[in-house]
Design a protein that fits this description.
8-stranded mixed sheet; 6-stranded mixed sheet; 14 helices
């Protein structure tokens, strides 16, 4: 769509899986919705992630929503009339240390509470699920009902589904800001013109904090960078998606594997690191062994990025419509070597493609799905901290219910914006 509607019941910022899923479920319920994306649908992390659809290992706050999301994933291909690559093939977390085993056993208490089919696989039985390996792992956490999907297909299919239901999908169109009347959202200003609305959802991923800051809405958010590769078609080593300390992998529909490092993630230092850093101290203590702190050109780029701009533009969103970040070759080489060492049948694998994406992370690594009380009509669905793809349909449906008043306070309580303050 190249022209904008004069008005819409709801406007959504962001064409990732969260924004698109919300638009889909709003349109499905008969709500007039316009989704505005500054670049292309799924141009950033929604097409660059691992493709896991997992319940296991989730923060307890996310479990009810991921369970709902998994139920939605099961029927999406049929509902949308498109193959999105979803399959319940199970997820396997492998433990190198007794501490990891203890952590898995502790998480099983949450699985039992929600009747999730997770269980510990002892060392002697790992070979049954991964017949040839040289890992020497102590145990594994397995959830047979967990699944996987193709990131390159799922979000765009949902966008087409929303469009078919009557949603307006605008791409290459930046939202510059919003206006209020009597303190409430009254219109949204885009580079193509204004849309009259009293309800705005910001689902802008890594861009959300910048957008909110322009309206004096503080949103603690930092970025981490994940590098990923895909291999040539190779023999299947397991039906499960696998994570361990050294490598993470998912079998793709094209016969190759999507591969990442299991415990090496870049954390670029940017100006917001100093602004929000104190809120991340506890998370840093837990994750410091896997974070590779890096000062690079992004610091200076963000230092020069405008934090305030006129609502008529220009804004920072037109100058960088898609984060095009380069993968870390060192991390990927480590991951690829680990892959071939752990799974000898993949020794002839070659790297076909590599990429990277920026992930929006909150201080507690739990998303925000919440109204912003001081501005009636303004809502957030952001900060999914690398867990957003699998939980996307469920989170989108929850956000749609939040906007239409169908979600209970209990459903939203774990995702409340005010918890950071």
């Amino acid at each position: 769509m190249t022209s904008i509607p004069k008005e819409s019941d709801v406007v959504i910022i962001g064409g990732g899986i969260i924004g698109v899923s919300t638009a889909y479920y709003l349109a499905k319920s008969g709500v007039s919705v316009t989704l505005v994306e500054k670049g292309i649908i799924a141009g950033e992390q929604s097409s660059r992630n691992w493709g896991f659809v997992r319940q296991q290992g989730r923060d307890p706050a996310e479990i009810p929503t991921i369970m709902r999301s998994l139920a939605l994933w099961k029927g999406l291909s049929k509902e949308l009339g498109e193959d999105i690559g979803f399959k319940q093939a199970g997820v396997f977390y492998l433990a190198n240390t007794e501490e990891q085993v203890a952590g898995y056993e502790d998480w099983l208490k949450h699985a039992k509470e929600y009747q999730i089919d997770s269980h510990i696989v002892p060392k002697t039985e790992i070979q049954k699920y991964i017949p040839t390996n040289s890992g020497g792992w102590l145990a594994a956490l397995r959830t047979p009902s967990d699944g996987k999907a193709e990131p390159s297909k799922a979000t765009t299919a949902l966008a087409r589904g929303a469009d078919n239901l009557g949603a307006n999908i605008l791409t290459n169109c930046a939202v510059l800001g919003f206006e209020t009347e009597a303190g409430r959202v009254s219109s949204v200003r885009t580079e193509l013109g204004a849309i009259k609305t009293n309800t705005l959802l910001c689902a802008g991923g890594t861009w959300s904090s910048l957008f909110c800051g322009r309206h004096n809405i503080p949103l603690p958010q930092l970025k981490i960078q994940s590098s990923v590769l895909r291999t040539s078609p190779v023999p299947e080593i397991s039906k499960h998606s696998i994570w361990c300390r050294d490598v993470a992998l998912r079998r793709r529909q094209d016969g190759g594997y999507t591969v990442a490092h299991g415990s090496a993630t870049e954390a670029p230092i940017v100006p917001d690191t100093f602004k929000w850093g104190i809120k991340y101290l506890e998370s840093y203590k837990k994750e410091k062994s896997r974070l590779r702190i890096k000062l690079n050109g992004r610091f200076y780029k963000e230092l020069m990025t405008a934090r305030r701009w006129n609502i008529d533009g220009p804004s920072p969103f037109e100058s960088e419509r898609i984060y095009d970040v380069s993968p870390n070759k060192k991390i990927l080489n480590e991951a690829f070597n680990n892959l071939r060492n752990l799974f000898p049948q993949l020794e002839n694998a070659t790297i076909i493609e590599s990429w990277a994406g920026l992930i929006d992370v909150t201080p507690d690594a739990v998303p925000v799905i919440s109204p912003v009380e001081k501005i009636p009509g303004f809502y957030l669905a952001t900060g999914f901290s690398g867990h957003g793809f699998g939980i996307g349909p469920g989170a989108g449906e929850l956000a749609a219910h939040m906007i239409t008043g169908k979600a209970s306070k209990q459903e939203l309580s774990n995702f409340d914006y005010s918890r950071f303050f």
